[in-house]
Amino acid sequence: MKYEFTIVVPVYNEEDNLKRVEKSLTDYIKIASKKTKILLVNDGSQDNSQALIEEICNHNSDFTYIQFQQNCGLSAAISAGFDNTDTELVGYIDSDLQTDPNDFNLLLAEIENYDLVTGVRSNRKDSFVKNMSSTIANGIRRAFTHDGMDDTGCPLKVIKTEYAKKIPMFKGLHRFLPAMILLQNGTVKQITVQHFPRIAGEAKFGLWNRLLGPLVDCFAYLWMKKKYINYKIATKG
Fold first, then answer.
1. pTM of the predicted structure, to 2 decimals
2. Closest CA to 92 of 135, 146, 42, 38
3. Does 235 map to a domain?
4. Is 71 part of a structural domain of the chain?
5. pLDDT above 80 (res 160)
6. Which of 5-9, 96-100, 132-136, 146-150 has the least mean pLDDT?
7. What is the four-CA torsion angle of 209, 77, 167, 82, rounded to 10 degrees?
8. 79: which of 56, 166, 169, 203 fits an S-S bond (Cβ 3.0–4.6 Å)?
9. Any idea what the CATH number is for the domain that residue 58 is in?
């Protein structure tokens, strides 16, 4: 059966989580509502992540990987995943597994009628500072983008690949995926998903990344929105 859905998993220094990633995604593939494969994107990890990724891919035919020469950031890893996807649908999940791969089925159930379906983390299992900074940052982004999203940073999304491949890459991209789909005159929907505390590894974003950084990115988004070119080809000869 031909693959229908690719899950992109950015990895940066996640050696303590990768075995859990393998098990969780292998279990999900068995119950996935679409024929699914996994694309691990190693964003220049400096630990043992690459060796573990190669081991995982060697004995799982549904897993593949790409490796960056150096650390380029989460947005670059997601963009590279989209660029290297050949299925009709593409998804994204963080390798810390604070969201549940099984919830992809909730998003896939809605994707036929939308161009992006994103999770909204219910009962978030993060620190007060992290939750509060994310709430403020989401409010700022909504004010700038008018995307109507409550949790744009949720690391659980499904997108129609034709839309994902048209998203221009810039730092902070992962915070604006719904807005970038709307720029293409696409449609978006949000679905409540589960959230769990981080079990292993370290968070890659601090207060600056979650709050002040996104504020700067909003001005970049406004510039891009003004300059964005959107077209659809009617016929070819």
1. 0.83
2. 38
3. no
4. yes
5. yes
6. 132-136
7. -150
8. 169
9. 3.90.550.10
Domain range for 105 is 5-227
Instruction: Report pLDDT for 138.
Output: 66
Give the position of tokens 């839309």: 163
Q: Where are the alpha helices (DSSP H) in 84-198?
A: 104-108, 128-145, 161-164, 177-183
Helix (H, G, I), strand (E, B) or coil at 5: strand
Instruction: Determine the 3-state secondary structure of 74 from DSSP.
Output: helix
- Domain assignment present for residue 237? The answer is no
3-state DSSP assignment of residue 120: strand
pLDDT at site 205: 53
Handedness of CA 64, 90, 82, 52 (dihedral sign): negative
Q: Which stretches does DSSP call E strand in the chain?
A: 5-11, 36-42, 63-67, 89-93, 116-121, 156-160, 188-193
Asked if 151 and 121 count as a contact pair (C-beta separation under 8 A), the reply is yes
Say if CB 78 and CB 10 are below 8 A apart.
yes
Q: What is the pLDDT of residues 74-124, one digit of tens each?
A: 999 999 999 999 999 999 999 999 999 999 999 999 999 999 999 998 776
Q: Which two tokens stand for residue 233?
A: 């080809």
Stretch 177-196: mean pLDDT: 90
Q: 65: Cβ–Cβ under 8 A, 6 or more apart, which residues?
A: 39, 40, 41, 42, 53, 54, 57
Residue 173 confidence (pLDDT):
78
What's the structural domain count of the chain? 1
Whether 121 maps to a domain, the answer reads yes
How far apart (Å, rounded) are the C-alpha atoms in residues 63 and 140?
A: 37
Give me 47's structure tokens.
């630990």
CA distance 11 to 73: 10
